[in-house]
Amino acid sequence: MAYLPDAIAEKRKLLIFEDEDSMQTILSAALLPEKYELTFVSTETLSKPQFLKPDLVLLDHVLAPMPDYDSLCQKIKSFYPSIPLVVISAYPLHKFGDCQKHIDLFIAKPFDLSYFLDGVESCFVAD
């Protein structure tokens, strides 16, 4: 039997809540297509989560956190309790209040690309 290189290994599935086309382009280029399978969705997708089986959820929060924002993080974690939730935002983490308990990794904008990629990879270290 022939040895199959790691390049054929299964790609990690990332579910990305991102509405901005420019940020989708940046993330698509940064998150190597040979390593990750990216699915960009809107928050409306949460009504049909059973069709999605991600290895990591990335939420780009572009608006100021609001009291009901906790319910979005909580909803994501209720559908994917063992899946890491990574939030990127221009707002500081302390502004997210109770939502913090649902966030596995927070990355502040603007961010260094290598820091972002290392952070995403760190979510898979325990695998």
What does this structure look like?
The relative contact order is 0.16. This protein is globular. Residues 1-6 have low confidence and may be disordered. The protein contains three helices and five strands. The chain is of the alpha/beta class. The protein has helices at residues 21-30, 69-79, 113-122, and strands spanning 12-17, 36-41, 56-61, 85-89, 105-108. It starts with 11 loop residues before the first strand and ends in a 5-residue tail after the last helix. Strands 2-1-3-4-5 form a five-stranded parallel β-sheet, sandwiched between helices. The protein has a single domain, classed as Response regulator (Rossmann fold).
Outline:
The protein is α/β, with parallel strands linked by helices. The protein is built from three helices and five strands.
Quick tags:
127 residues, 5 strands, alpha/beta, 24% helix, 3 helices, 5-stranded parallel beta sheet, Rossmann fold, single chain
